[in-house]
């Protein structure tokens, strides 16, 4: 009965029971005042999670990909120039989306496993004295490689160049799990989804717009309708969406925000770092290396683990599914077959994480890798013991 | 505890328990084969509900509005001409969306309460000898006015003119509740959502494309990414979505399709006609009239009921919510304040429907309308008694 | 999909969504402190619902019948004399249980439809100068006949005779729905179950013992083990049961108590009276009579409705189930075939109740009774309109 | 969010999602035919799980303790003699219950950790030439010590003595998890509950009676009402219970039986042996010993693990709860403080079990025991790898 095993994919995450129940709501009239009592706490709560005082929050029945499209289509015109680095599958996809919308993307090719090249950004921005670049895209956490980037450094590059370009950040696999500072970093659009740090099913694109981005939306001419933030804002002003909202999912978000904010967002972040550290110690105990090039870019929500040359890392994922009923993540794009990924975000305990590590060990041993059974588990156990979690018990 | 009252809005509908449970699924890996076992039955089942042999089905984490955008952006180029009638709020919104995408919409203004003017369409199409018109838009069931249109007549108009324009049909509030014939009517794109006839929460845009529409998508240049059907098809070929799919909602759709197809789609249609007839008899007993101009355009999923001049119909909806905990639909757009709407689609029994009629009676009486308590209930009771439903009991 | 129709049986009642979710709890360790946080609020809350300061509350994984057995076996000895009236099926069954336990039951035969004969009790108690009678049994609300009895009058009879017998009250279908005063009425044991006023599934016997009954339990010699209150008390003292407790059901009870006590128990009682009054007005409008002999004994949780001579009232119940998917209660025992019952307790709105009345009308008309469709509905509508409920909306 | 950790208590077990959903059923009329469609498959399915062709199955809203009381009170008379061994907490409690019912219990004191002394039984039965002994009690699996007994040997002892006593078996923690043969072993009454092998919440006593036990019930004079099997049988004959049945729990049982019988009861048994073997190898790797005296009595549903002298084993359980949010079982009765227990029955995967072992290791290390982290995990991993499970995936 494999459903009872936790999942170890980098989202969707394991869902707390209380959130599942909140999502599974009987039908209500989405035009009644009840919906307003769900909607506005969601907007306020997301703003807090983003560490912003003033971000304009929009939530669409969509996914993070729809959030990217919201960011672009509401702020830009066909032919506008955008600066982006390609250092993983998700930055790659975002660049592709820009090109489909007729944007001119200045791509900085960056090795997968590395973070965003803030220095190169700085140089390019400095050189762009005509301010052709309208937006700098930044993927905060590359889910494909388990690499986080230094968004503050990107902001610093913009500031150093005194460049007016907007800063758009894909925080799909970081927001609500890793430190994210909308205001402090001068983010203009932040994008995320429901199925990662918010511990919900997929189905919501969640975006935050700065005042500057809002202003840009007034003149942007890329066609948009479903993702139009002005329609959405008009809806919110009447406790509504411009179309039928996903009420249950919004109710789940409201409860997820209650859980996260009650815990304290910095405690949530620390919890993710703690769990992730155990995983990384296990990887080291196995004698393996992360795809992430250096500790400063280690992601706290997903680890992409390199397997030896000649070994197909995807076999681990298939084997785990078929033999142990456990889900890990495959390598994507440039690192397909070279890494397998362990997601460690959302609702996760030491106990759950250790079972994932134990399963990975069995799979690797089954497939002929020279892994000492129990070695990674022991390394994580040692860390978890020495750094006990604050146990959060669901109220009965 | 008002949540236990049924809702009488024209969607989202009341949800059968089994469908709610199917939606409330623990997290699985959406890249594992399990998801394929959910996805493909959904595609096949939707095709059957559309009465099509060959439609290409696409399902997006979105809503019907996103379905419209999928239809337009995958098949058209900026500046293309589209023919559309405006006879209610939803046709109005679709026209607006076309205009935002730079399409040239030839609008046939049609009185709200009337169906699509197939004769006018015929004349226009005949006159369009250069075939400037690329697409004819048709709203099958205007949710705002409770009016259905004759899609077969629109097809006949196209055929009579020997016009190659594609036929796009908004079936959001008709598909899976009222007779819809994708193949027989020569529909090129059909659009619906999850929260109406499929009895699910909002969150899915469901569209069907004909081969002709698929061919058009190969050269269409409107920008698209999230709603790109080619990406989606590539995903399906690998049992996946191009982004994270809403697994629980898809699982719910699979179960909803099982329920609908087990019942038989024609039985589902007859069930809706039966319930709707009772509602219409109640309206007549109250001495009121429908917004729909004539019996041939009466919708079987929603009735918009005109209230006397000088009376604000929206008060009924507010009063029902505040005093009786019951949801009806307000009038929208041109008929705001002039009608209130009773939704009668999806999971609904005689017993539930009678409670809605009884509530409407109390509300109208409370607000000073000259309504005889029990009169509409009695009219519906008489009809339901004489035409008993096939009781469908959920298996325990 | 008949499951979505409300039920109109005199328990189990319709369950609020929040209570169903509270019951559906993942497994926890019932020996962990979490269980204590469920258990003790249940004991305290039940005591409040009983309007007692000092009752000792015991909750068993059982039903009301088990509650009766708890009352008898913990307080009596084989051969003890008990006074009881037989005025319905449940008093009949309790008498039978006494006899099986070797008790000597002094039965006062009372017409079904009448309340307890407090006057006869008074005479008998007065005559029992040797105080042979150890316990007076009283069924507060005869579910079979829809008859409530005057427990205060029974207490007065005891007091007038200065008789030391204990007073045991079956409040299965009254407690948490109708006025019940453990302390004021000098009740020694009160018995109820989970599936009536507490709006839970069946599965709990809930009893309250006075200090006097506790004292009696110290010397009572009837054999008992599962229902031993001493074992249970020892368990409670350690946050436990003497065996595995039904944790989810207890968690549901905790939430039900929160709902009831937040509403205010007197408001709960008034709500039941209000709904019941509408039902009784409908019955009168149909030209039918209640089994209950006079207004002072009308039950506010269930109405047993007499049908004309020669008509089998059970046919209504069968027909409602088969044709309309609605559950009413059949007549039991002496009134089998002579009455059908409409339960109106627990989680119920005007809207739900009207649907039950409308269904009853259709059934009676279908079966040839001379019932004017809509007549009972109109009578109830009129009353409900004039006496609007306080709408209680579940918090989202 | 500790609720998402599996529990490792010897029942209630972890519940498969499908079973939880089956239990969480909206209210139906328990007197309608729907209930019969739940009830009879339950009775038939339990009979199959017991490996019986003809056992009479009774299910009460109660627990295993109520099942014992059912066994005794329906078959015996005050003063009857019963033979029983005391080798753990549950046999101890059953003996106590017999004494409370006025039975004369011939107790064979047996060291905790040992199985039933079939040889001593044989001698006693042989000596009982007057057949004073009416029933032999046997606890198949002592949950307190993790010891199973040889019921076939007890039957052989009865047969060898040609003794007519009935054989009553407590299979609470063995039935539906370990091999149990009602017919082959000549069992007269088998007792179990819902919360162990059936993977349900607590709340059902489940018993099977042989024809011989049924005959005994016709003359047995111990008082009984709630647990009277004759009333229950009369109820079943009308698709009912003699009181309100716990419908949702019965529906859950029906689904649990479907799961178990689809898997095949011998496969279920093998699955438990496999998981248990991994646990025992872990215990050995820790250098610890089981309470169970020898491999032939090792239980496949629970292991009681002895800790070193001077160490309070209960601290492990408290620590696991407080620090890791994990539930193990404490030692009970004679072995309180000397053992802690790991339950390994019901819905459990390798992955879940390994997380339990990893947690136990951390707890023991935290509390100063000389345990090598990862050692037990590795031992179990090695076994599970070499003996892969048949993965049972819940149908979506």
From TrEMBL, chains A, B, C, D:
Spans traversing the lipid bilayer: none
Cofactor: pyridoxal 5'-phosphate
GO biological process: glycine biosynthetic process, by transamination of glyoxylate
Coiled coil stretches, renumbered: none
A family per Pfam: Aminotran_5
Positions of modified residues (N6-(pyridoxal phosphate)lysine): 196
EC number: 2.6.1.51
GO molecular function, one term: alanine-glyoxylate transaminase activity
Protein name in the entry: Serine-pyruvate aminotransferase
InterPro entries documented for this protein: Aminotrans_V_dom, Aminotrans_V_PyrdxlP_BS, AspGlyoxATase, PyrdxlP-dep_Trfase, PyrdxlP-dep_Trfase_major, PyrdxlP-dep_Trfase_small, SP_NH2Trfase/AEP_transaminase
Alphabetized UniProt keyword annotations: Aminotransferase, Pyridoxal phosphate, Pyruvate, Transferase
Enzyme class: transferase
Binding residues annotated for substrate, in chain numbering: 341
Protein family: Belongs to the class-V pyridoxal-phosphate-dependent aminotransferase family.
Domain (Aminotransferase class V): residue spans on this chain: 39-326
Organism: Ascidiaceihabitans donghaensis
Gene3D superfamilies named in the record: Aspartate Aminotransferase, domain 1 (3.90.1150.10), Type I PLP-dependent aspartate aminotransferase-like (Major domain) (3.40.640.10)
């Amino acid at each position: 009965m494999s459903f009872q095993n936790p999942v170890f994919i980098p989202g969707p995450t394991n869902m707390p029971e209380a959130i599942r129940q909140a999502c599974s709501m009987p039908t209500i009239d989405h035009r009644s005042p009840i919906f307003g009592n769900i909607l506005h706490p969601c907007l306020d709560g997301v703003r807090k999670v983003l560490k912003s005082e003033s971000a304009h929050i929009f939530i669409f029945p969509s996914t993070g990909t729809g959030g990217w499209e919201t960011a672009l289509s509401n702020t830009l015109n066909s032919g506008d120039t955008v600066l982006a680095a390609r250092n993983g599958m998700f930055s790659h996809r975002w660049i592709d989306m820009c090109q489909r919308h007729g944007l001119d993307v200045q791509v900085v090719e960056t090795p997968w496993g590395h973070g965003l090249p803030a220095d190169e950004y700085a140089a390019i921005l400095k050189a762009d004295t005509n301010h052709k670049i309208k937006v700098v895209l930044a993927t905060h956490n590359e889910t494909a490689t388990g690499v986080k980037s230094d968004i503050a450094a990107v902001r610093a590059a913009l500031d150093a160049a005194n460049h007016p370009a907007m800063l758009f950040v894909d925080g799909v696999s970081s927001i609500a799990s890793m430190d994210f500072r909308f205001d402090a970093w001068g983010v203009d659009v932040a994008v995320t989804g429901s199925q990662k740090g918010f511990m919900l099913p997929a189905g919501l694109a969640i975006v935050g717009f700065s005042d500057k981005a809002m202003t840009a939306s007034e003149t942007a001419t890329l066609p948009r309708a479903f993702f139009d933030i002005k329609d959405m804002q008009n809806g919110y002003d009447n406790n509504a969406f411009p179309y039928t909202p996903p009420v249950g999912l919004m109710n789940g978000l409201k409860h997820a925000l209650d859980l996260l904010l009650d815990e304290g967002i910095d405690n949530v972040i620390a919890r993710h770092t703690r769990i992730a550290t155990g995983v990384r110690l296990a990887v080291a105990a196995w004698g393996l290396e992360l795809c992430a090039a250096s500790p400063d870019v280690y992601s706290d929500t997903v680890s992409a683990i390199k397997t030896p040359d000649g070994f197909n890392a995807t076999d681990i994922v298939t084997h785990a599914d078929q033999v142990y009923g456990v889900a890990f993540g495959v390598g994507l794009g440039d690192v397909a077959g070279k890494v397998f990924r362990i997601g460690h975000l959302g609702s996760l305990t030491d106990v759950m994480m250790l079972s994932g590590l134990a399963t990975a060990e069995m799979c690797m041993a089954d497939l002929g890798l020279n892994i000492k059974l129990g070695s990674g588990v022991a390394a994580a156990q040692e860390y978890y013991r020495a750094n006990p979690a604050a146990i959060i018990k669901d109220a009965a």
